[in-house]
Amino acid sequence: MSLVGDWSYPTTIRLGAGRIQELGDACDSVGIHKPLLVTDRILANLSITQRVLGLLEKSGCGSSLFTKIEPNPTDTNLEAGIYTFKKGDHDGIVALGGGSALDLGKLIAFMAYQTRPVWDFEDVGDNWTRANAAVIPPIVAVPTAAGTGSEVGRAGVIINSREQVKKIIFHPKILPSIAICDPELTVGMPLNITVGTGMDAFIHCLEAFSSPLYHPMCQGIALEGMRLVKKHLPLVVADANNIESRAHMMSAAAMGAVAFQKGLGAIHAISHSVGVLYNTHHGMTNAVVMPSVLALNKRAIENRISKASAYLGIKGGFDGFYNFVLEFRRTLGIPDKLRELGVGHDRVEQMTEMALSDPSGHSNPIPLNRGNVMELFAACI
Ligand SMILES: NC(=O)c1ccc[n+]([C@@H]2O[C@H](COP(=O)([O-])OP(=O)(O)OC[C@H]3O[C@@H](n4cnc5c(N)ncnc54)[C@H](O)[C@@H]3O)[C@@H](O)[C@H]2O)c1
Ligand SMILES: [Fe+2]
Q1: Which pairing describes strands 12-16 and 64-66: parallel, antiparallel, or unpaired?
Q2: pLDDT at position 14 over 70
Q3: What's the rounded Cα separation, in Å, for the pair 61 and 55?
Q4: C or N: which end of the chain has fewer Cβ atoms within 10 Å?
């Protein structure tokens, strides 16, 4: 069976195997006739990018490509992208890739014609209202991974290279006008990226579900998102060509991004700091950190995690869920400790300060402070 979806929430989503063929039509429908295709350096050398460029060219959209994007993209990548976008006189962005390329593509569109620096739009309070929304060109997002859900998100994450911190930039119009979610595009992901991105989706749902804020819509979406990852991530790990499970993973990724409107938590606050200093993969870092954060939050989330466990078919309430998480990580080959990703104890103080000032941590069920974050790092490393 192949899964197909034509959804309008939270944006237009065309999900299904082979739907990348609709790219030209998607651009046309949002008024893009001369897009800049934005992807990262690694994807640029794979046949997937040539295929997408070919589709654009065939539909009369030209074949302009920007690829200067690191995993964990930076402000330098953004500046280069804006320069290319303006120089080529483009009228929209097609962002192709995992979260790194999608975020940077979205931010190029957002920042191309703003007059303030990008940091003025950090996702704090109503900063976003400072932006001129009328000059933001349309974005079509084409995910090649199933994790961040950036294709349906209103934020982009970039590193401020001067301050050495990851910042979340937010504006409602960063939301792509259309996301084409073609599970066939995710088949070529290396195994560790399939696992890391899949765990990012799971953890978006878990942290959103655990956040104390009131948002029952997100609560329901988070719960079903966790169920999809629990069932389908092992299936795509066992068989990379399982398109049906790949489609479910793409849905789960989108659901995670919708759910975390309810808030994230300490897993992301810690993972962002580690990612900046050690350039580790975002989702894999989250997965390593997850059990220690669950243990910290236990007394605040025990009841609701017990309810989730019942829905997920896990026996034993919170403790059963905790043991499931450990076993799930083991079967997926996820390292137990951050030191296995190259993280040492020497920069814990610096990472603690970074984690404390990361807005993701502000909705952690147990309020974060210097003491408990230092303890978390000690436990995770
Ligand atoms: N915007 C958001 O809401 C949001 C949410 C979570 C994370 N993020 C950010 O997203 C970034 C991480 O994104 P990610 O986890 O998707 O990883 P990524 O985009 O950095 O990609 C990881 C690697 O996988 C490769 N890759 C991706 N798809 C592939 C495919 N189909 N075939 C072969 N290789 C492929 C990429 O080239 C890259 O080398 C981080 O910067 C993180 O902070 C953003
Ligand atoms: Fe994430």
Answers
A1: unpaired
A2: yes
A3: 9
A4: N
Query: Which residue puts its alpha carbon closest to atom 39 of ligand 1?
Result: 42
Tokens encoding 146: 């199933």
Residue 136's region, left for phi above 0, alpha for psi from -120 to 50, else beta, is beta
64: three-class secondary structure by DSSP:
strand
Q: Whose CA is nearest to atom 6 of ligand 1?
A: 148
| The residue type at 33 | H
- Segment 188-226, tens digit of pLDDT: 999 999 999 999 999 999 999 999 999 999 999 999 999
Count of CB atoms within 10 A of residue 31's CB?
Answer: 11
The length of the chain is: 381
Q: Is the CB of 193 under 6 A from ligand 1?
A: yes
Question: For ligand 1, is residue 145 a contact (CB within 6 Å)?
Answer: yes
pLDDT tens per residue across span 254-295: 999 999 999 999 999 999 999 999 999 999 999 999 999 999
Whether the CB of 100 sits within 6 Å of ligand 1: yes
Widest Cα–Cα separation across the chain? 59
Exposure class string for 161-200: b at 16+ Cβ within 10 A, else e: eeeebbbbbbbebbbbbbbbbbbbbbbebeeebbbbbbbb
What mean pLDDT is reported for the chain? 97
